[in-house]
Amino acid sequence: MAGDRLILRVASLGEADELAQLEAACWPAGLAATAEQIAARITAYADGQWVASDRDRPVGYSSAQRITFAPLDQRPLRYDALTDADRFTRTHVPTGPVYQLVGVSVHPEARGQRIGRQLIDHQVTRAWSLPGVQRVLGFTRPTGRQAAPELPLDDYVRTQGVRLPTDAVLEFHLAAGAVIVSMHEEFREIDEECLGAGVLIEYLPDSSDPKS
């Protein structure tokens, strides 16, 4: 199994093209980070770009940056504004008190082996070890939203797993100890699967404890 051979390491500029191919295999059209965007992220904050490698082949990629609180006070909150259109060049602040989880990708052929969980747990553990980090936040995607387009986002989140099927991406984070902070209907307009919505979640200091 890949888990027996898996190595977590910082991404390098030389593999931006390969990571872009990985992203393209994981995300709906238009949402995957390009090689240029990934290279910009690595240049802005290499220590926030982590790869899960299996026999020198990237099978997972997780991205994060550090930001200040100010962008989170803006309304409406928009993905492009918080991530500098996926580049981090203008949004990453080396001493920012917020460690922002931006995304996690696992190649379809490698899913089911907890690679995404390992990447996020590593990011969260590392975030809380950094001087000055006060919160670990990220926006996640309510990927089952299309099944209930008539529901406001807060109703959808409240009833998923109750009156609606469990939303797999939300559950990925909530089952690991993340908590919901706020919900945003027009977070990323091009994300048709989620009807443009995003859910702000937070990993508290004990969220990185090993899970069974």
Write a structural description.
- With about 210 residues, the protein is of the alpha+beta class.
- It has 7 helices and 7 strands.
- It has helices spanning about 1-5, 15-25, 35-45, 80-85, 115-130, 155-160, 170-175; strands at about 5-10, 50-55, 55-65, 100-105, 135-140, 180-185, 200-205.
- Strands 1-2-3-4-5-7-6 form a 7-stranded mixed beta sheet.
- The chain is globular and about 45 Å long.
- About 40% of the residues are buried.
Q: Write the H/E string, N to C.
A: HEHHEEHEHEHHEE
Proportion in helices:
25-40%
Radius of gyration: 16 Å
Distance between the first and last residues' Cα: 18 Å
Shape designation: globular
Q: Note the quaternary state here.
A: single chain
Secondary-structure-derived class: alpha+beta
Instruction: Give the uncertain stretches in residue-range form.
Output: none
| Mean model confidence by pLDDT | 92
Query: Percent of residues in beta strands?
Result: 15-25%
Helical segment tally?
Answer: 7
- Strand order within the widest beta sheet: 1-2-3-4-5-7-6
Major sheet description? 7 strands, mixed
Helices and strands, with pairings:
Layout: H1 2-5, E1 6-10, H2 16-26, H3 35-45, E2 49-54, E3 57-67, H4 79-83, E4 98-106, H5 115-129, E5 135-140, H6 153-159, H7 168-174, E6 179-184, E7 198-203
Parallel strand pairs: 4-5
Antiparallel strand pairs: 1-2, 2-3, 3-4, 5-7, 6-7
Supply database-style keywords.
single chain, 212 residues, alpha+beta, seven-stranded mixed beta sheet, 7 helices, 28% helix
